[in-house]
Design a protein that fits this description.
Elements lengths: L1 H12 L14 E5 L13 H4 L8 E4 L10 E7 L3 E9 L23 E7 L7 E6 L5 E6 L9 E2 L7 E6 L3 E9 L11 E10 L4 E4 L16 E5 L10 E10 L13 E12 L3 E7 L33 H5 L16 E3 L6 E3 L2 E10 L4 E10 L9 E13 L3 E16 L2 E20 L5 E11 L8 E10 L3 E10 L15 E10 L8 E15 L3 E15 L4 E11 L9 H9 L3 E8 L1
Pfam family, one: CBM9_1
GO molecular function, one term: hydrolase activity, hydrolyzing O-glycosyl compounds
């Protein structure tokens, strides 16, 4: 099997074709504003009169070779405190109604009219920020990791304070934006960043970008960007400091026995301190997360627990530095494990108070990023919960053009707290050391991930590691990939998210896309996905093979016809009538045909 995988990967890599790069573009120039710009959606300041417009947006959907139907013009300026952006979004015909599926902050979706700005402040084409506004002035912002390769690579849970205003006119709408420099991390004295703009217009069913992006890539991809030149070096990033204290009082009453609990006051707060231009220190004492957005309610009918993303602001700065180790199925670190523990009386997971925490993250220079965290939770004797101390350290180094290597160390210690002291409970530790390599080729055709992680616990010496190799090739028409994972039986990352251990998995994937010259169909084509899981003792335990055919219209509507063949090994007998049980044993493979409309 290992020889087969190696041969496949080497053969796979040999078919690479050099991607023709965009002709060098001078970029966009930003003049310094002499006076602060009033963010009102009316472009009457002098600075806007002194700067030329950048336009010539090109489609990335439905095609990537035509100029935009709905034209867009943008300008950029700055001063000592803000980056200013102005945009005029033209329409070929008079129009005052636009599509917005929600007026809630952090909207998303291809059906929402709007303009977004992708900013890469360190010119690494890997990490950045997104700021977006729709015609009704609704904002959204996100942090981008892994080059924005996938839609999951930007985090809308990140929130910050910035300013924007939109005004609607007969044949166009205007956006004016002011982003505080203190919101961003950048090098002292920076003279240029990377930037791109993209617009979604539902009336003409088009996505357009200032920097051309091939139609097989996401518009959030930071590899496709141009230079933003400042007329003079940016001011030194000041010592950004913010403090958010809180005070709360709680009480309760049992109406059956009439017992009323006394008032219980609580105090705490968070602090964010900028250390240099690209480092940030977050501190918290007795934090209160009552204002955090609640998770979507989901009914879990699966065998494994559901993954919910982190939404607590304390954990979101440079979240990719900690969270992108591993894969979606093998995560060595999952910050939502901190502050949750098991009630020994009920066996259920319950909230466990965080006493304090510190988190340092950011860039050391152009090539190195670092993250470190220490958190302490409280004892809860009534529930049989001992306090835990969590220490996490991550170090990442940029290699080649856009790839990176990283090392992570995690330590969870069980501790008793008595009379203000911290007493370590011997033998109650859980530790992990991991190494990751993330591949991003210069032409964006090749991506991959390779890692090895190992956990350390008392009494567990063998089969405590996990390894993974994945390589994907993406062209305009062809996408093909192969991944292999080997998870040890005793691999146990208690601060991570790995719902299943003790298996090996191989998963090939391939699709081919046609782009017809059609008035209605944008793209169509077949696809194949497969995954097989097995163990040394049981053999194959899970199989899923899927053939599908996707048809996407210019209106973003999709039709998918898929045929699945699935097998699941039953680890325990089901209580079924004899007839049904015998039928199940005779037909272990289940086939389904699904027609999905979106």
């Amino acid at each position: 099997m290992q020889k087969f995988i190696l041969t496949f990967l080497l053969s796979f890599y040999s078919i690479i074709i050099v991607f023709s790069q965009e002709t060098e573009h001078p970029g966009i120039f930003a003049n310094k504003a002499e006076k602060p710009v009033l963010i009102d959606g009316i472009l009457n300041e002098e600075v806007w009169k002194d700067i030329g417009w950048e336009s010539n947006f090109i489609q990335t959907f439905p095609t990537d070779t035509a100029m935009a139907i709905a034209k867009t013009k943008v300008k950029v300026s700055f001063d000592d405190k803000f980056i200013y952006i102005a945009a005029i979004l033209l329409n070929p015909e008079d129009r005052k109604k636009y599509v917005s599926t929600s007026l809630r902050r952090d909207y998303r979706g291809n059906q929402n009219d709007g303009i977004s700005i992708v900013i890469d402040t360190f010119n690494d084409k890997t990490n950045g920020y997104i700021f977006g506004v729709n015609p009704y002035g609704v904002q959204r912002e996100a942090m981008v990791g892994n080059g924005g390769l996938l839609t999951t690579d930007f985090n809308l849970a990140w929130d910050n304070k910035w300013y924007s205003e939109a005004t609607i006119h007969e044949d166009h709408w205007i956006v004016e934006i002011g982003i505080p420099l203190s919101t961003l991390r950048y090098k002292d004295g920076a003279e240029n960043w990377n930037i791109n703009f993209y617009r979604i217009d539902s009336k003409y069913s088009e996505k357009t970008t200032w920097t051309p992006i091939p139609k097989n890539f996401n518009v959030t991809h930071t590899a496709f960007s141009r230079n933003l030149h400042f007329s003079e070096p940016l001011p030194k990033a000041g010592g950004n400091f913010s403090l958010i204290p809180y005070a709360a009082v709680a009480t309760s009453k049992n109406n059956i026995n009439g017992i009323e609990e006394p008032l219980k006051p609580s105090f705490g707060g968070d602090a964010k301190i900028g250390i240099g231009p690209a480092m940030n220190l977050d501190l918290t004492v007795n934090p209160d997360f009552s204002q955090v957005e609640v998770d979507e309610q989901v009914t879990n009918l699966d065998r494994f627990e559901i993954f919910f993303p982190e939404r607590r602001q304390f954990f979101l700065e440079n979240v990719d530095l900690f969270a992108d180790f591993g894969t979606d199925r093998i995560r060595p670190f999952f910050s939502r494990r901190i502050g949750v523990d098991r009630d020994e009386n009920t066996g259920q997971n319950v909230q466990n108070q965080i006493l304090y925490g510190a988190r340092l993250s950011g860039k050391l220079n152009e090539d190195w990023r670092i993250g470190a965290m220490n958190m302490q939770t409280a004892n809860d004797p009534l529930r049989g919960i001992s306090g835990k101390n969590f220490t996490v350290a991550a170090l990442q180094r940029k290699v080649f053009n856009r790839s990176n290597v990283g090392v992570m160390v995690i330590n969870r210690e069980t501790m008793d707290m008595e009379q203000g002291g911290l007493n370590l409970v011997n033998g109650k530790h859980n530790r992990l050391v991991g190494f990751d390599y993330n591949l991003f080729s210069k032409d964006n055709r090749w991506t991959g991930k390779f890692f090895y992680h190992k956990t350390f616990e008392e009494g567990k010496q063998s089969n405590t590691g996990t390894g993974h190799a994945q390589l994907t090739f993406t062209d305009v028409n062809l996408m093909a990939g192969l991944s292999y994972s080997n998870v040890g039986e005793n691999y146990n990352p208690l601060v991570g998210y790995t719902p299943r251990v003790g298996y090996q998995r191989i998963a090939p994937i391939m699709s081919y896309t046609f782009f017809p010259d059609s008035k209605h169909i944008n793209r169509h084509g077949p696809g194949f996905e497969s995954e097989t899981l097995w163990t040394p003792t049981l053999g194959i335990t899970d199989e899923l093979h899927t053939l599908n055919y996707l048809i996407r219209l210019h209106s973003y509507a999709e039709v998918t016809l898929s045929a699945n063949n699935q097998y699941t090994y039953l680890f325990s007998l089901l209580t079924l009538p004899d007839l049904v049980e015998n039928l199940w044993l005779k037909v272990p493979l289940i086939g389904t045909i699904i027609l999905e409309l979106k």
